[in-house]
Amino acid sequence: MIYFYTQLQFICFDVQYPSGKALHMKYKIAICDDEQEQIEYIASLVSAWSDRNGHGCDIRTFASAEAFLFEYEDDSSYDVLLLDVEMKNITGIELAKRIRKDNDRAEIIFITSHFEFAGEGYEVDALHYLIKPISEDKLTQVLTKAAEKLSQEPPSVVITCEGETIRLRESDILYIESFLHYIVIRTKREEYKIKESISAFEAKLSTDFYRTHRSYLVSLKHVTKISRTSVNIGDTALPLARGKYDDINRAFIEHN
């Protein structure tokens, strides 16, 4: 099933194998460009890639960054984003920075007419830059690379909270705080209180996490500031134990 979404209409149709079976949806892809011809051209290439490789795709198209953000507030579950860099008002680069505030999984592909913008993609971990006019072969290669990266299972940890078993992606965890025999896991959207020691939980995680204090474990991915006595995760300052300043700085540099 492939969907084309615009500000004016919502069109839906089936893509089928020769056997008549519809493809199962696998990737949700957004195309954001302020030129309608470009939108239609890129959408046709993505659709052809999807059909040719047996990937089901939910394709959404947007004529501006503002239109995309309006929809994104209600549904942020995009796998691939094809963003025109030189859009009016909010550029593709600015849009990508907003997305990366709470979404580090989506593969971002920039589309541009100018090579000089390429350096700005590092800040948002862009997968690739495509230069207009877009080659079908090149787009096919980049989409295939994005699909390969998305197929890799991200690091996660399984917890039991209030009778439910939940799998948390490590990239969603901001920090963990210990309270006696319990820990509180604070993520981007929710918090989970479970009965476990902070040391036992630390042993389940990757080296992306650092023990700043006997009661705190922080994600190095989300550290925004380090001082002699504290570590910031966004606007939240967490205590840093005496003597750990040099060590956490080293860990932070090596991690990044």
Structure description:
The protein has two domains: 2-150, Rossmann fold, CATH 3.40.50.2300; 156-255, OB fold (Dihydrolipoamide Acetyltransferase, E2P), CATH 2.40.50. The protein is built from six helices and 17 strands. It has helices at residues 36-53, 65-72, 92-100, 136-150, 198-202, 245-255; strands at 2-5, 10-13, 25-32, 56-62, 80-84, 107-112, 128-131, 156-161, 164-169, 173-179, 182-187, 191-194, 209-213, 216-219, 223-226, 230-233, 236-239. The strands form five sheets. A five-stranded parallel beta sheet has the order 4-3-5-6-7, sandwiched between helices. Strand 11 and strand 12 form a beta hairpin.
Briefly summarize what is shown:
The chain is of the alpha/beta class and 256 residues long. The chain is 26% helix and 34% strand.
Instruction: State the end-to-end CA separation.
Output: 39 Å
CATH topology of the largest domain: Rossmann fold
With strands numbered from the N-terminus, the spatial order across the biggest sheet is 4-3-5-6-7
Mean pLDDT: 85
What is the succession of H and E elements? EEEHEHEHEEHEEEEEHEEEEEH
The count of helical stretches stands at 6
The CATH class of the largest domain: Alpha Beta
Count all strands and give the number: 17
Largest sheet data: 5 strands, parallel
Number of domains: 2
Topology:
Blueprint lengths: L1 E4 L4 E4 L11 E8 L3 H18 L2 E7 L2 H8 L7 E5 L7 H9 L6 E6 L15 E4 L4 H15 L5 E6 L2 E6 L3 E7 L2 E6 L3 E4 L3 H5 L6 E5 L2 E4 L3 E4 L3 E4 L2 E4 L5 H11 L1
Parallel strand pairs: 3-4, 3-5, 5-6, 6-7
Antiparallel strand pairs: 1-2, 8-9, 10-11, 10-14, 11-12, 13-14, 15-16, 16-17
